[in-house]
Amino acid sequence: MTNKPLLTVNGLVKHFDISGGFLDQLRFSEGKFSRKRTVVHAVNGVSFEVRQGETLSVVGESGCGKSTLARTIIGLYPPTSGTILYKGARVDDLSPKAMLPYRAKMQMVFQDPYASLNPRMRVNQILDEPLRLHFPNLNAIQRAERIAAVMDQVGVRPGWATHYPHEFSGGQRQRISIARALMADPEFVVADEPISALDVSIQAQILNLLMDAQDERGLTYLFITHDLSVVEHISARVAVMYLGALCELAPVRELFEAPRHPYTRLLLSAIPKLGGERRRSARIQGETPTPINLPPGCVFHVRCPFATDLCRVEAPTLQDYGGALAACHGLEENRI
Amino acid sequence: MWKKFLASHFLWSFKRDWVAMASAAVLVLLLLASLLAPVIAPHNPYDGTNVDIMEAETPPVWMEGGTSKFILGTDAQGRGILSAMLYGMRTSLMIGLGAVFLQAFMGILIGLFSGYSGGKLEAFLMRLADVQLSFSTLLVAIFVGAIFQMVFGVASYEQMAVPLLIVIIGFAEWPQYARTVRASVLAEKKKEYVEAARVIGLPARRIMLRHILPNTLSPVLVISTVQVANAIMSEAALSFLGFGMPVTRPSLGSLIKSGFEFIFSGSWWITVFPGILLVVLILVINLLGDFMREALNPKLYKGA
Amino acid sequence: MAALLTVNNLNVVFSMRFGDLRAVNDVSFSLESGQRLGLVGESGAGKSVTGFSIINLISRPGRIASGSITFEGRELTTLSPEEMRKLRGDRISMIFQDPMMTLNPVLTLGAQMTETLLAHENITRRQAEERAVETLKKVYIPSPDRRLGQYPHELSGGMRQRIIIAIALLTNPSLIIADEPTTALDVTIQAEILDLLYELTVNERMGLILITHDLAVVSQVTERIAVMYGGRIVETGPTMAVIDNPSHPYTRGLIGALPESAGGQRRLNQIQGAMPSLYHMPSGCAFHPRCPLAMDVCAKETPKLCETGERGTLTACFKTAACEAASL
């Protein structure tokens, strides 16, 4: 593993306007009409880099913007502002045509194996598409050979290539989904909750498969998950997100042994440990904020036991604490 | 395999539903009868040499004065009602199916495109569909038909009646398809397999046609049955009002109309038999449509 | 003391067009007041069907084919639908996975809570509202009196699940069946809800059946555990005894596959294959095609639960427990 950044994300912002058409936006209050927009602040100024060959995990709870982050990086959503660089070149503002070479290099594995495969296409048709597009000079026989080789690698019998997705179990489908991502020979794979829709006994199989593929092909992973025990096992570095902002970014050992940000601490204390002692967890205080109504200042201050007046007004920025980055006024002031 | 699976469930529910089976049997019979009309019809109603005005208004065979030559009697010009019905149904079905093909083609294309691309174009096309739907099909058809007759004369209208009716009814009803397809495109577009296709880098056209379109076809199939019935009804209504098929090339609607003048003079059969045929035809198509709606409901056939 | 709930040789069958599917096979367990039982298994293991069949919520084509369910001394399988309805939501409450599915989006929380009370007890609306506020306090909902006028969509997921628990508690039931109550929730919220369930069963001496796929969750809350696979209980006993010393190869595999069991190694220990579907249930022990210890007899005969010699745990396995095959 080198320290060379493969992917650099700079001040990435992604907002969604969900206010609908003009008529939906109209509000009538105090005797006059006004136009009100409803905006989801999914990702608010996130910066980090993914290093060549590493697995960087992004963890957070639902609504923290981790999936939006993944989809913006892979180019499914255009960013509202900020830049994404792949090997130093900007990829966030490219035309579909200029993006094509990067499409082969950057791939994605999705969460729901039941929705991520087209039910009307056979497995070999699904796997053939990336090959036809990105390797136009291969003939049909060469493509079939490649498909068989990759199916073999992900543990699906190549003889099943002419079957339809519904004939496979969830775990098998996820293998096919991974095979599709590997077809175009990518360097960088975004995995968005790739195991959370699977049964417990299947999760280990898929994790092993992802790690094997990484070892064999030298892949770099951006791994999106809410499952901290998985994160601890597979990643080199971990980024913790809360309400669209990065709270902490640290090497995996650092993060699990000495979590710095109060939210990271809360998250770690909440994981149910197999056979471990029951811990009392803190009660919800007040209402949990949503990405539509973001609190001012530090987004975590509503739930934070250490919050001060400063936290309620000013958003903290990421600071370096001996290799671990964290965004917290309390840490800056040495209070925590 | 998928087709086999679909067929097996489809067949299974079909076999348990005697209404659907009976409707299908009747429909097949009617389709065959209209297809083979030139072969099985006792007379050719378009052939003037066969028609004898002296045989006009012959009652059906079981009534006094009926002859076995005309089982269901004859109309005011002496054409056999049975033969005219067989030929008329042929024309009706041709216009109905043709119009639905045109509707489906336009509607699917517009629905797919506007649903996938979204934004201003989608809003424009869908408002256009709303506007289009707020005009009655009959009103548009009468208007266009009248203009055509004025410009090209009644003679060429009789020549062009079938394609013209197909185009008029087809244009009037495309929004039905466009709305249905757009709704399912919006649902499919959010699914991860479409995102996966975009991540691969496939061009939008291929994603629309290869990935999304095949997954939106079940509702299209279901509304198609209703639309065929509607189109046949529209044509019949137009013909009845005198803006559809000319009496020289009768459809079911124009047969009903041509007999309507004689219903009070006692020759009820000229109107009633084509009327019954029209009702049966529409009924079986709609019953089959109901069955398909249930059988193709993805929520219901998840289990097997 | 007498058991609160006893399930004996329960069999649930789904009659499909191609024949019967056996979703639950010979399941037996019992629960005392204030006891917490975890029913663990993957999807298709029959754990939810077992839970639903206790309160007879199995809908056609499913039905209880045989077996008995005794609750507070009454046999439940022979109750009329009307008697069952009275029992359900009164003495036995159920909590489901998705709070949004359980709450009616167009009714206020107050209406939904008092409705339950008014249906089961002979009290006035005012008394019912007081009880509702009282119960909301029990589940630590901030400003409870204000909540009665609110609609479900105004609350966060964790709050909604608290409301569901409050509704379940309204009638002071003696048994709560919770089907994946925290699966739809975030970890931090999950921890709070688990705490709450634990505390309530202790304070109110209620029985709890916690149905989940998450071994860690079960180990935090329950005293006894029953691991299900292919419609059968394959291992049962005191929770910690089973988790510290699993004896059924499936339980071992399940625990061994967790990332925290991997120790220092990079690859996880995985169980091969996938859970069989009800349509293709293997003969004999349902786990034998995936089992590293499978013997010939495992494909022929189904092992019953037998003692393992381990602190009161029972395991259905010819290899790791003292189960004897009839043909040997």
Describe this structure as you would to a colleague:
The complex is a heterotrimer of chains A (336), B (304) and C (328). With 336 residues, chain A is an alpha/beta fold. Chain A has twelve helices and 14 strands. Chain B is mainly α and 304 residues long. The longest helix of chain B is centred in the middle third of the chain and has 53 residues, at 137-189. In chain B, α4 (81-117) packs across α9 (217-241) and α6 (137-189) packs antiparallel against α9 (217-241). The radius of gyration of chain B is 23 Å and the shape is globular. Chain C contains twelve helices and twelve strands. In chain C, α4 (109-120) crosses α5 (125-138) and α7 (157-169) runs parallel beside α8 (187-204). Chain C is an alpha/beta fold. Chain C is globular and about 65 Å long. Chains in contact: A-B, A-C. At the A-C interface, α6, α7, α8 and α10 of A face α7, α8, α9, α10 and α11 of C.
Can you describe this structure in just a few lines?
The complex is a heterotrimer of chains A (336), B (304) and C (328). Chain A is α/β, with parallel strands linked by helices.
Characteristics of this structure?
heterotrimer; A: 336 residues; alpha/beta; 2 domains; 4-stranded antiparallel beta sheet; 14 strands; 24% strand; B: 304 residues; disordered C terminus
What's the structural blueprint in terms of helices and strands?
The complex is a heterotrimer of chains A (336), B (304) and C (328).
Chain A: E1 5-17, H1 22-25, E2 26-29, E3 32-35, E4 39-51, E5 55-59, H2 66-73, E6 81-86, E7 89-90, H3 96-105, E8 106-109, H4 123-134, H5 140-154, H6 170-183, E9 188-192, H7 200-217, E10 220-225, H8 228-234, E11 237-242, E12 245-251, H9 252-257, H10 262-270, H11 309-313, E13 319-321, E14 324-326, H12 329-332
Parallel strand pairs in A: 5-10, 5-11, 8-9, 9-10
Antiparallel strand pairs in A: 1-4, 1-6, 2-3, 6-7, 11-12, 12-14, 13-14
Chain B: H1 2-16, H2 18-35, H3 37-40, H4 81-117, H5 119-134, H6 137-189, H7 192-200, H8 204-212, H9 217-241, H10 252-260, H11 269-295
Chain C: E1 5-16, E2 19-31, E3 36-40, H1 47-54, E4 62-71, E5 74-75, H2 81-87, E6 92-95, H3 99-102, H4 109-120, H5 125-138, H6 144-147, H7 157-169, E7 175-179, H8 187-204, E8 207-212, H9 215-221, E9 224-229, E10 232-238, H10 239-244, H11 249-256, H12 296-300, E11 306-307, E12 314-315
Parallel strand pairs in C: 3-8, 3-9, 6-7, 7-8
Antiparallel strand pairs in C: 1-2, 1-4, 4-5, 9-10, 10-12, 11-12
Helix pairs in contact in C: 4-5, 5-7, 7-8
